[in-house]
């Protein structure tokens, strides 16, 4: 059975078919949602709740044998900024128990699931709104990265094309977006492969198109950052 992955502008919704992952971390924020109380392994402890927020670059482990879905949230988005301000408040993670997620697991169509999640986000005051105001050069770069203009490109190559020094671009991106440009580019590479596989392309072909040196390089990066291989996430789609 393949995991459901639904891409939206600021986040991807994942309804996993797998059970458990290795401890891992990456730049995306997580919002876990479940009908029942979840228990997540977080760094040196356990976090409980049926709504759980985790900031980027925090070690965590997807729970085994617990039904839920989660959102992988673009750390440069308005939703991410609202989560940090309203629910994290300079903490790495937080949780709450709420009736907002009641019967969420009964949504079988992608359309209905997205409607329910949009409703939950509104009730949590996390509606998508105007994007964060940042340096227009970085705002333009983020749009180009989201459109895969620089897929597989190194930071040095992007800086050269834009007539910036690598150190200056790295510093400005970190200051404005709050994350390292190199790490953000890798996440977009992984996203490119996920979308390609969902569209029926092979992992091998799509990984190479995304700029990974080899399928094994992609697999290692995916396992390191996501705690599980893409072939496990998309078992009936994987075609090497």
Oligomer: single chain
Work out the helix count: 9
CATH class of the largest domain: Mainly Beta
Unreliable stretches: none
Class of secondary structure makeup: alpha+beta
Distance between the termini: 17 Å
Q: Main beta sheet: strand number and arrangement?
A: 7 strands, antiparallel
Number of strands: 7
Q: Which percent band covers the strand fraction?
A: 15-25%
Order of helices and strands: EEEEEEHEHHHHHHHH
Count of discrete domains:
2
Mean pLDDT: 88
Q: Can you give the helix content as a percent range? A: 40-55%
Question: Which fold name corresponds to the CATH topology of the largest domain?
Answer: Jelly Rolls
The gyration radius over C-alpha positions equals: 18 Å
- Label the CATH architecture of the largest domain: Sandwich
Tell the overall outline.
Answer: globular
